């Protein structure tokens, strides 16, 4: 065991105690967020509520468009929140989702990215709340259990499937704003081993626990990358900054508007049941004209299976396609952490 690792039986206790006087926060971070690092509640406030209900509480207690949610894992909790109170979830200013892949290969299957693949139904349900008609892109309804078909009580009860959303009229005019950060945009933003070493070695020599801890866990990660991929030898070993890219956008999108490009209104749909394509993000690449005067109520028509050409159906996601620079994130990240 690494000397800086907390023993398993102690691992949660430190979350409820005040940090030491030399808290591992840079003075710049402390000043920016205006916190008292010696207070046990200023950095972490435990909740006894399920995460999706805690999220809904925060959104409900704050003005609309004042909360940005950053989703860097499977979208299960957000789908639960959407099912419980969709109009409350839509109070969010935006939901930034690291997930999916559009034109690049997947990282868990040839066509799927892990976060989307891990809970495809959650992703499909959440994306549906961006649609003018959410029912048009909801995943298929699961088949009934055998006990429901045979009227038998001998079979175990079916799992608790999430119910459909209210109708588009009951939901009102507002829709969920999602900005997607797929592998296409996140993968080219990477952090190299030599960049980390150049930053942390002088700090380790000065006795920085944060630098030493960072070196320990990133060192093993770079070693793993070196064993898996070609071109990752020595200092060139690198890892893509998938999740930090979403945080970078949240921190700088308004102050550096000219550096970010988001393609708005893209109809991205998630494949939930394909044998080989589960988790794939489907988009329409055909050069076809949109259906004029369509309110989304008519559904499919001959020549438009899936209603991809409808103005009133399909999802409407924003997708990040440009950043302030692929090599700008790594130094930004290191400077924010270490000062």
Calculate the mean pLDDT score and round it. Answer: 87
* Strand coverage percent: 5-15%
Gross morphology is globular
Helix content: 25-40%
Biggest sheet details: 5 strands, mixed
Count of DSSP E strands?
9
Distance between the termini: 29 Å
Describe the protein's architecture and organization:
The protein is α/β, with parallel strands linked by helices. 33% of the residues lie in helices and 10% in strands. The protein is built from 13 helices and nine strands. The strands form three sheets. It has a five-stranded mixed β-sheet. α2 packs across α3 and α10 runs parallel beside α13. The radius of gyration is 23 Å and the shape is globular. The model has no long low-confidence stretch (mean pLDDT 87).
Features:
two-stranded antiparallel ribbon, 10% strand, 9 strands, five-stranded mixed sheet, 13 helices, alpha/beta
What's the quick description here?
This protein is α/β, with parallel strands linked by helices.
Summarize the SSE layout with pairings.
Elements: H1 27-33, H2 51-61, E1 68-71, H3 76-84, H4 86-89, E2 94-98, H5 114-118, H6 120-128, H7 146-150, H8 168-171, E3 178-181, H9 183-186, E4 190-192, H10 193-205, H11 209-228, E5 238-240, H12 242-252, E6 261-266, E7 269-270, E8 281-282, E9 317-322, H13 329-338
Parallel strand pairs: 1-2, 2-3, 3-9
Antiparallel strand pairs: 4-5, 6-9, 7-8
């Amino acid at each position: 065991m690494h000397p800086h690792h907390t023993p398993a039986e102690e691992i949660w206790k430190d979350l409820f105690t005040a940090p030491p006087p030399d808290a591992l926060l840079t003075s710049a971070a402390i000043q920016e967020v205006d916190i008292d690092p010696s207070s046990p509640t200023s950095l972490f406030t435990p909740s006894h509520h399920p995460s999706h209900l805690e999220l809904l509480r925060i959104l409900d207690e704050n003005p609309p468009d004042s909360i940005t949610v950053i989703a860097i894992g499977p979208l299960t909790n957000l789908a639960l929140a959407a099912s419980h109170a969709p109009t409350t979830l839509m109070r969010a200013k935006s939901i930034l989702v690291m997930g999916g892949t559009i034109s690049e290969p997947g990282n868990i299957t040839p066509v799927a990215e892990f976060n989307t693949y891990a809970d495809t139904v959650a992703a499909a349900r959440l994306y549906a709340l961006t649609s003018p008609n959410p029912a048009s892109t909801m995943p298929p309804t699961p088949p009934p259990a055998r006990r429901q078909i045979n009227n038998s009580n001998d079979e175990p009860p079916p799992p608790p499937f999430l119910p459909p959303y209210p109708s588009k009229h009951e939901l009102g005019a507002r829709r969920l704003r999602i900005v997607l950060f797929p592998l296409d945009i996140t993968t080219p933003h990477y952090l190299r081993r030599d960049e980390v070493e150049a930053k942390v070695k002088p700090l380790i020599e000065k006795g920085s626990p944060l630098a030493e801890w960072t070196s320990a866990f990133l060192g093993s990660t770079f070693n793993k990358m070196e064993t898996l991929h070609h071109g990752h030898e020595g200092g060139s070993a690198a890892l893509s900054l998938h999740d930090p890219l979403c945080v970078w956008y949240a921190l700088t999108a308004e102050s550096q508007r000219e550096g970010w490009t988001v393609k708005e209104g893209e109809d991205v749909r998630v494949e939930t049941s394909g044998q080989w394509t589960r988790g794939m993000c489907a988009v329409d690449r055909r050069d076809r004209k949109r259906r004029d005067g369509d309110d989304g109520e008519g559904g499919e028509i001959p020549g438009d299976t899936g209603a991809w050409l409808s103005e009133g159906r399909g999802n409407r996601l924003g997708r990040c396609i440009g950043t302030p620079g692929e090599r700008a994130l790594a130094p930004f990240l290191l400077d924010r952490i270490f000062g």
